[in-house]
Automatic annotation (TrEMBL):
Domain of life: Bacteria
Name of the molecule in the record: Uncharacterized protein
Amino acid sequence: MQRLNWRKAVVACAGVLLPLPLVLLLGGLLKLDVPVSAPPGERVSPMLTAEQRLRLVTYGRACGPGKACEPPLGCLFDVRYARSTCSDSQCWGDDQCPEGQSCQGVATWGDGPLVRVCVPLGPRQEGEGCVPLPRDKANACAPGLVCGGRTEGWCARPCRLGDTRGCSEGFFCADTIPRPLCLPTCEARGCPAGQQCIRFDEGVSVCAQVYGPHCLQTPCTDGRKCDVNYAPPYPDKVWMECVEPCGENLPPCGARKVCDGWHCLTACEPQGPQVCGEGYHCSRRGEDRPFSCQPIYWDETMAY
């Protein structure tokens, strides 16, 4: 039995009831083109026409918890602009992107569909950190790789769950976003001298030199949280800190420390004595912020 396409059925019924111009408009609005390269089973936001976008109240608006997007839009966080907006896909394939960019599906907030956008191609290799929509290609993956992961971003190759031979040695197939990917692990093979196997979420672990107190080995005291950070331009380094919160309704920072970014950091002077440890330098997050010992990757975060 031949199955009737529901969009064609709606347009056919509308043809009996509506004038011709409205029928043509309705037909155009119901035709949602889905990228042909979307893997089977994945929900992907289509590329909408200008008319279709105008009919969606939430298109282009801020989104997130409590601010959902209308289907078929996805709530896309774009680190380039530090905001989340309701968006449709912007491309189908690489031929619709500028030179040096690739059309890839990016995960959206909640259970939303993937949104395909043009992302830069960069130098980051398989297993290295990345940013899904970076401002600078220094934080982008090399061709053939996808920047994925639920909490951190890792350059990875797609894989099939259950296929034990689908990933190279030192990688495992993880059920992650935007799709199953080969994520790195160093727990079985060990690390070179001077580096340690550092664990992240989703079972990921990478070899890296540790700057700051190794609070994963020696837990923080006084109820402080161990914060582990990395930056894509420094693939073999991590920074650890026992976070000492500060700010409104919290105790002031101790001697030789300043409150910056809601936590206490070691105070310093750019032209003063060297008080910052290895992997840190004396800097500040803005003209109105105090000087403090910041990880050397901080300047790169402004280019994410």
